[in-house]
Design a protein that fits this description.
By secondary structure, this protein is an alpha+beta fold. The chain is built from eleven helices and 20 strands.
Length: about 400
């Protein structure tokens, strides 16, 4: 089978490896970078943007591919669903459904119509719509159709909201933005699998973010996050989402806020979480979700049997001060001595860093596990002190100042 994989990050590298493991598949990678992390894993790499539908269509037709797929990314999934439908290729999700679960304006409307708990919001198609009526500050402004938290800003005043709205509209390909009331509380990231039409909860982590900044930089995913009663409530919300959007046989990522008022859905997508989340899901549920996902995209209907992990876990994301990455230091050594359980490089040598705001700014991530919270906290403190990202002159540009929980 000849398979076209869209996007070339570390998650897609794992996807390609699993596609090769499950059959004699030829995998062609499409990514606009010359040397994306997934390039060494594929059979061939074609440089093109996964969001350029015409270019991807041309490649798919010329190569006579049997399947187009991706993993762990929203906007490439929309391209996959659209072209699969146009070219008569198999896909686990229809284009209409993919649009509903990747475009936040569609998503918010359907959630409101079906009583799924979410913050009050407005859909804005122009900066003149910054007169936001009865919405209470602070607000969150975001493009309707961007990945990696691009353009997502918190606004304390109308002036800040208007500025953030202009930026969000510029980043949105549909020139549409969402403005919603900010909900304080813990941000939860829940991964489920919709088996048939039944929602099964795989894992829930708390997403820790930088404090007192206008952007939403996730620095860490931590577990345990919820108790048995909240797991049941999250599963019920996942089921309501599946029912409202007609989801069947699909992974489902749900981001939500937990506070004294309850659980509030921020957004969701019919995919696995990115940033090596597939590895966390396997540890926390016993389900090899990447393997199950490949079974799904190859035409199967996999079943899952999750069971909660007894222990503690942290996935810490590595960001950098401005500079150019030459390599990683200390990661292999700390993995060998058991301080870290695993790590992944999200960038290759030569990558440049200008800021530390979105998931696309991450240089690497490292996983710490243990039987107790105390064990994990000691390990990650040691790791943060010894790990480094070096520039061509040997200087450490890794940011060690982000608080670890």
């Amino acid at each position: 089978m000849k398979i076209l994989v869209l996007a070339g990050g570390s998650d897609q590298a794992a996807l390609i490896d699993e596609l090769h493991r499950q059959g004699q598949n030829e995998v062609i990678l499409v990514d606009y970078f010359e040397n994306p992390p997934a390039k060494p894993h594929c059979d061939r790499h074609i440089v093109a943007s996964t969001l350029d539908v015409d270019a991807v269509r041309r490649i798919a037709v010329e190569e006579k591919v049997d399947l187009i797929t991706t993993a762990c990314t929203d906007q490439a999934l929309l391209t996959v669903a659209r072209l699969s439908e146009e070219l008569g290729l198999p896909c686990y999700i229809s284009y209409a459904t993919a649009l509903n679960v990747t475009n936040k304006s569609y998503m918010k409307r359907v959630m409101a119509e079906h009583g799924i708990p979410t913050a009050r919001f407005r859909i804005a198609g122009g900066p003149e719509e910054a007169a936001l009526g009865d919405l209470d500050y602070p607000l969150v402004v975001k493009p309707a159709d961007c990945n990696s938290s691009k353009g997502v800003r918190r606004a304390e005043t109308r002036e800040e909201a208007e500025k953030a709205l202009v930026q969000a509209l510029e980043l949105s390909r549909t020139h549409t933005a969402i403005v919603e009331e900010f909900k304080s509380g813990d941000e939860l990231s829940a991964d489920l699998y919709i088996e048939g039409r039944t929602a099964k909860l795989l894992s829930v982590t708390v997403s820790e973010k930088r404090r007192n900044v206008s952007s939403f930089t996730i620095t860490q995913s931590r577990y345990p996050a919820v108790g048995a009663e909240e797991r049941d409530s999250i599963t019920a919300i996942g089921q309501r989402i599946a029912d409202a959007f007609g989801l069947t046989d699909t992974p489902l990522l749900v981001q939500m806020i937990r506070n004294a008022e309850g659980l509030w859905v921020i957004e969701f997508s019919a995919r696995m979480g990115g940033g090596t989340k597939y590895r966390i899901i396997e540890l926390l549920s016993g389900v090899n979700i990447m393997r199950k996902y490949v079974e799904l995209v190859l035409g199967g209907r996999p079943a899952v049997n999750p069971h909660p992990f007894e222990g503690s876990l942290r996935m810490n994301y590595v960001y950098c001060n401005p500079g150019t990455m030459a390599g990683l230091g200390g990661f292999e050594e700390l993995k060998a001595d058991g301080t870290i359980a695993d790590y992944v490089a999200y960038k290759n040598a030569g990558a440049t860093f200008e800021h530390s705001e979105t998931s696309s700014d991450r240089a690497a991530g490292y996983l710490v596990t243990g039987a107790t919270e105390e064990e994990v906290l000691a390990k990650q403190e040691r790791a943060n002190a010894l790990l480094r990202v070096t520039d061509p002159e040997g200087n450490d540009i890794m940011r060690h100042d982000f608080k670890l929980f």
